[in-house]
């Protein structure tokens, strides 16, 4: 009996020791059962985004500067801003612009305009004997100032390439009033050009006067207009908007005495009527 009980007792003690070895003590539990350290996380900033607005413009305007007869033109437009920038007011007669500096009160950057030309085919009777004044591109710079949220002052200074090589500019002031989905704007306009621009579009060379037979030679030293513009924009949603507008500018000063303005086929009173449709979408910034 004694010899048989001893092996059994030894086996029981060995089993108990094995079970005790599997149960961790207090210190072991704190070390072995603690949660693993979280893996480091990295926050990736979203890529910068642009809001691009494409515009289609339909205008009724004089056939050429100073003309009495009108024609219709269609041309595109584009505006680009960062997604974190609010949509800013843009008048229909603003040049194509990119704001390199943009704050709530001040904006500045490059701009450009396209000036329609004057061609013999526009009015064969009035322009017989005149050389064509080619269409021109006018790159330059603009500045905008918002002294209060509803008042904008804008100035552009540009230099012609291709069609003319004169220095031209414009000054505009707009009262801008949002009304629900509408935005009403109205304000005065002032445009000017140097002698190179004025002589290109309003001057008459002696040989042109001789060939035409109804005009006399004329050499203006400057170009100036005064007038105003009114526009009404309706925004359908974040993508679509439509604008209707009308402007009036009167040619004054030296160019107002041109035979192309005072003659049988011209007038100093220049009207423009138009409609603009805007479509906006987002895209990754290219730089």
Automatic annotation (TrEMBL):
Q: Which domain of life is it from?
A: Bacteria
Q: Quick check: keyword Lyase in the entry?
A: no
Q: Where in the cell is it found?
A: Cell outer membrane
Its keywords, alphabetically, are: Cell outer membrane, Membrane, Signal
Do you know which InterPro entries this protein is assigned to? MipA, TAT_signal
Signal sequence span is 1-30
Q: Of which family is this protein a member?
A: Belongs to the MipA/OmpV family.
What protein is this chain from? Answer: MipA/OmpV family protein
